[in-house]
Amino acid sequence: MSWCLSAVVCITLIIPCINGESWVTANHGTPPVYTGLAPMKSGWSTKLFGVGNGNLQERYYSADGWIWANHGAPSTDESVASEPCVMYDGKLFIVSNKGRLFERYWSTGSNSWLWVLHGKALGSEKLRPMCACRNLYGGRVFVVGINSKLYERWWSYTSDSWQWRPHGSPPGTTIGPSAIDTCDADSGCTENEVYLVAGNGYVYSRYISAGNPGTPSWYLVGKPSGKTAWSVRVGGGIFVTTVDNYVCERLSSTNWICSRPPSTTSTPYRTTTLSKAVQVNNCAKLDGSAKYLFVNNWDDTTTSGVFQKPVNIRGKLWRFKVSGTSHNWVYHGTAAPCCSYYRPTIFMSGSCPKAFFVKSNGNVLEKYL
């Protein structure tokens, strides 16, 4: 389904045995990409989409091996800026550098990828570079304006067209700066809702009842006791990062379990990013059943003073295993002194997990079993 094929990148493989797990590291080159990667399940394989230098980049597997495809930008004077969100095979959404929402979809009629401008919601001057998609009841895309309000782009069965709907912000607070998230079909989630961290450090969801358009309501999801949430990831569970670099899973409205990688400190604050979680039950190369995530945080060497900064911004990569209330961290190395990581991506490939990582120099890496 890709229209622009680049040369196949020669992939370098590194196969260490870490904590009894034989993860293979593959280097996918530097197209470049400067966002996290959004997976799109397509038949027997999974494609990945990210953004670099204002262009939408696709990584997919063909009979010739792994190939990069450059989808370009919507126009010569408007580039793409956000990590994409995938609605389903052949359709994704993305926010431009001008704060407008675009759709990229595969047209069976023209046998090519096409751009569609969705613009921005009435009352929002521009959109932040973030979006979240849900393929339920016609399709939903959630975005946040620079006014810190939530908006929805939804497909109306009645008018047979896309419509905007404002959702405002959680009662008594605003929407924080971190990305919003929805759960995906792979996690078994059937609810139509979007999750976010508010300016007060609590997690909220905007739940929309079944139907088209459905009735929306705000719900307080909560936060770990004594901590301030920073970002949220949903899929295989609700996980948050905190401002002091803990990763916490919500077990119930009043019960969160938290931990952070060994030797990780509270400063620099807000430097931990994480993938969604995947439930692994029957992977022959992993023991037992558990949830798996990959987590990135920064080097803990900082300057002194009130405004502390990392001396060398180097991404540390961790495999995070959650089994009930047990947390297990395994260190997977540090990026070269040049680099940190964007938030990791993990998905199931057959019965085992596979993960992709983007360095801040545009380089893309993969880990698989």
Automatic annotation (TrEMBL):
Organism domain of life: Eukaryota
Q: Which SUPFAM superfamilies match?
A: Quinoprotein alcohol dehydrogenase-like (SSF50998)
The UniProt entry, under InterPro entries, shows: Quinoprotein_ADH-like_sf
**PANTHER family (UniProt xref):** BULB-TYPE LECTIN DOMAIN-CONTAINING PROTEIN, OS01G0275950 PROTEIN
The name this protein carries in UniProt is Uncharacterized protein
